[in-house]
Amino acid sequence: MISPRPLSPQMQKMYFNPPTNMQTRINRYNLEALALANEPAHLLTPDNPHLTYILQNRENLLESLDQIVSLYQQESEAKVQRLQMLETTSGVIILLTLAFLGLYIFRPLANTLLEERAQLERALLEECLLSSVDGLTGIANRRHFDQFLSQLWSLAARNGEPIALIMCDIDLFKAYNDTYGHLQGDECLQKVAAALKNSMKRQVDFVARYGGEEFVVVLSNTDVEGATKVAETLRANVENLAIPHRLSSITPKVTISLGVAIGYANSAVLPQTLIEAADNALYQAKLDGRNRYKLFILIIK
What we know:
By secondary structure, this protein is of the alpha+beta class. Strands 2-3-1-4-5 form a five-stranded mixed beta sheet, sandwiched between helices. The longest helix has 84 residues.
């Protein structure tokens, strides 16, 4: 039934060399069972010798088999534990080897590569910042504004949302420069840019230097009421800076004029249309006396 060759010495001793050989007992039990099965019906009585043998030896045989199964299970578990220990030991050796290689061979190389990558990333970031930020005021420049408006225009066209654009111009800035000098003029531009930027309440709102003394603000998904409220806030915040401007014909401090344009984006129309509308509104604000905003509602068909 079971060859003694693959069994451990302990299993062989239990299976083949007990007081009565286990192999012999199993064979005898099978023969008695077969004999009982072949007996004529009239001989199947409680005192049948085959039945008597089966009943007397069943429990002892099952108990012996259970001991063998338990021992086999113990030996199997011991083998599994040894294999797990071998696996763990191998893993530790591999990890130590890799750690040694990483510490003394690959780590210096990796540090060099990481440092070179960091330097490249810093250079790219500086280049990106220089190409998108106005050097004097620290806010977005004209190039960045053009890119932002183009992307926002496409997004708003897909979502059917309005865009508000506010053009801002420092009133009589040439006279300010002539009076106070260009260094003072640059400082004035920086203060106005900071006031405009700090007036933004949403992260999605965008402010940029459009050129010279002109600035532009872009408000996504904003209606007429919201846009005019922002425009008045921008105007008031700049006036509240109280930067002296003694040659101003409006008030003896720096002010701005604003043109507000609102329209629903359309993929068939260029965003330049919205810029032109805001510029026309700004021109009207200057004609009406400056230090104010004018609104132009753009209807795009």
